[in-house]
From TrEMBL, chain A:
Highest taxon above the source species: Bacteria
Gene3D superfamilies attached to this UniProt entry: Iron hydrogenase, small subunit (4.10.260.20)
Chain coiled-coil ranges: none
Protein name, as recorded: Periplasmic [Fe] hydrogenase small subunit
Enzyme category, top tier: oxidoreductase
Keywords from the named record: Iron, Iron-sulfur, Metal-binding, Oxidoreductase
Gene transcribed to yield this protein: hydB_2
UniProtKB/TrEMBL annotation, chain B:
EC number, UniProt record: 1.12.7.2
InterPro entries: 4Fe4S_Fe-S-bd, 4Fe4S_Fe_S_CS, Cytosolic_Fe-S_CAF, Fe_hydrogenase, Fe_hydrogenase_lsu_C, Fe_hydrogenase_subset
Gene3D superfamilies the record matches: 3.30.70.20, 3.40.50.1780, Fe-only Hydrogenase (Larger Subunit), Chain L, domain 3
Protein's UniProt name: Periplasmic [Fe] hydrogenase large subunit
Record keywords: Iron, Iron-sulfur, Metal-binding, Oxidoreductase
Domain of life per record: Bacteria
GO MF terms, alphabetically ordered: ferredoxin hydrogenase activity; iron ion binding; iron-sulfur cluster binding
Phylogenetic lineage: Bacteria, Pseudomonadati, Thermodesulfobacteriota, Desulfovibrionia, Desulfovibrionales
Length: 110, 419
């Protein structure tokens, strides 16, 4: 395709505009991504309100069975002995490797 | 490497390896157009330009939180996934001696349909359960059940922490949620001094793994050593979490394999299942049934709202008539709220998604100026529904406009480097 003079100037205009506005355009694109996320978020709240018959964790009959004071698997209740064994954890300080990288000259945001 | 829903993926099944040594996402240097989009979306700065041409790489796994926001926002499909268990799961599903258990996260059911042509966000929970059954999973257990368990455990922990303030050896406030594996690694890496503020509760999937191999095995009379648990997540960082060496409280590995929403769609397509023709089915009982409080875990602010639905009733002794606590629902940024609870007082909460926002709240806590009782953090903007393992927004790859802007930016930068 042959590009005529008018087309060439038009293309130059677009190029210049995009270069100058690049930053703002990126912001617009990020906002569009949030709309996409917004659609998924709305669907989640709609399902909570309309599809799920029970809406509080403590009202779930299978939760009541699990924590049943007499014969439930976690009969001591939440944060009991068995809960602490199976359902709770501990965390590890992982800062040393990033500190070592920073000392080598790498830059990170935090 | 093979393409899985538009994302190149290395299929391997690492076992017994320190997950800190693995790249869960990395840039394919031959595809990188040096546009820098990944760097804009990376909170920690782990992905950066490595040469004068502006080719990007994740420089070290230690600085990468494995969230995959770089991957889902790359306009050139240049970022690949480093770990995938799909081939191994297909083998286990065929093996009659293995009892394969499905454990899908809440947000998966709001993204999976998009891979089969449904509009963005379509709820496909029922078809998802049916598809898992057709794939040959022996038990259709659901991670939403343990989202409810998480509320019981984490809500109780919060109430305990509030009550023990002023006593000797009291655990500190605010309490941070610990459901999000990107956030957990972030706190461990950049704010280790705040680890006493982290809830000691495992995430829902961290709870379902060990419950499946103990309680589930007992209830279904299945030998626990035959159970193979498959965590299905909207998330790449969950692959890291599943490999944590401490996740072995059931006496076995609690989580044997982790895949994301895109990989589940790939498995359904590979098995030749007509997803859109599937009936809506429920999960299997015992570890399957869930509530609205569990499903909202997929959104930023969801764990907070679900926890408040419990805390309100426990602290006030009254029934919460309207379970909608809309003030904590968060689309982006930081959201704070004072929730008035009768017979107790005010519960001060904060919700943030995106690690830059998390850091602001962490700095407040570090300075001793945080007024909150409970803080929810999600790594991905908007929460798990926007996770790094969800189907990619078609706009990002399809938009000629966006990629044109990126290309011009690239030329602009290249010229600047040369000058």
């Amino acid at each position: 395709m042959k590009l005529n003079r008018r087309g060439f100037i038009k293309a130059c205009g677009f190029m210049a505009g995009y270069t100058v506005l690049g930053l703002n355009m990126t912001k617009v694109a990020v906002a569009a991504t949030m709309d996409f996320v917004g659609l998924r978020q709305k669907s989640v709240y709609d399902a909570d309100a309309k599809i799920y018959k029970i809406r509080k964790s403590q009202d779930n009959p299978m939760i009541k069975k699990l924590y049943n004071r007499e014969d439930g698997f976690l009969h001591e209740g939440p944060c009991g002995h068995m809960s602490h064994h199976l359902l709770h954890t501990h965390y590890v300080d992982r800062s040393s490797r990033v500190t070592a990288l920073k000392e080598k000259g790498y830059k990170f945001n935090f | 490497m093979k393409p899985i829903e538009g994302v190149m993926t290395q299929t391997n099944a690492p076992r017994g390896i320190d997950p800190d040594s693995l790249f869960f996402v990395q840039v394919d240097a031959t595809k990188c157009e040096a546009c820098g989009t990944c760097e804009e979306h990376c909170a920690t700065g782990a992905i950066q330009s490595i040469n004068e041409e502006g080719i990007h790489q994740v420089v070290d796994p230690a600085a990468c939180m494995n969230c995959g926001q770089c991957l889902v926002n790359c306009p050139y499909d240049a970022i690949y996934e480093g770990v995938s268990y799909v081939d191994e799961i297909f083998e286990k599903l065929k093996d009659p001696n293995t009892i394969v258990v499905s454990m899908p996260a809440p947000a998966v059911r709001y993204g999976l349909g998009e891979c089969f042509g449904a509009p963005t966000g379509t709820y496909v929970g029922g078809q998802m359960h049916a598809a898992l059954r057709q794939l040959g999973f022996n038990y259709i257990w659901d991670n939403e059940f343990t989202a409810d368990v998480t509320i019981m455990e984490e809500g109780t922990e919060l109430i305990q922490r509030v009550k023990e303030q002023g006593q000797k050896d009291a655990r500190p406030l605010p309490q941070f949620t610990s459901c999000c594996p990107g956030w957990v690694k972030f706190a461990e890496t950049f704010y280790p001094d705040l680890l006493p503020n982290m809830s000691s509760c495992k995430s829902p999937i961290g709870m379902l793994g060990p419950l499946a191999k103990t309680y589930g095995a007992e209830e279904t009379h299945t030998p626990a050593q035959k159970i193979y648990t498959v965590s299905i997540m909207p998330c790449i960082a969950k692959k890291y979490e599943g490999m944590r060496p401490e996740m072995a409280d059931s006496g076995f590995r609690d989580i044997d394999a982790t895949i994301d929403t895109r990989e589940l769609a790939y498995m359904i397509k590979t098995a030749g299942i007509d997803f859109n023709a599937l009936p809506s089915q429920g999960p299997d009982p015992i570890l399957g049934d869930s509530t609205g409080a569990a499903t909202i875990f997929g959104n930023s602010g969801g764990v907070m709202e679900a926890a408040l639905r419990l805390a309100y009733e426990v602290l006030s002794g009254q029934k919460l008539n309207n379970p909608d606590i809309k003030v904590v629902r968060t689309h982006e940024g930081i959201n704070t709220a004072d929730v008035k609870v009768p017979n107790f007082g005010t519960v001060k909460v904060a919700v943030a998604s995106g690690l830059q926002n998390a850091a602001k709240l962490c700095d407040e806590v570090r300075a001793g100026k945080s007024p909150y009782h409970f803080i929810e953090i999600m790594t991905c903007p908007g929460g798990c529904v926007n996770g790094g393992g969800q189907p990619v927004d078609p706009e990002i790859r399809a938009s000629l406009f966006r990629s044109t802007v990126a290309q011009i930016n690239k030329r602009f930068r290249a010229r600047r480097v040369g000058a």
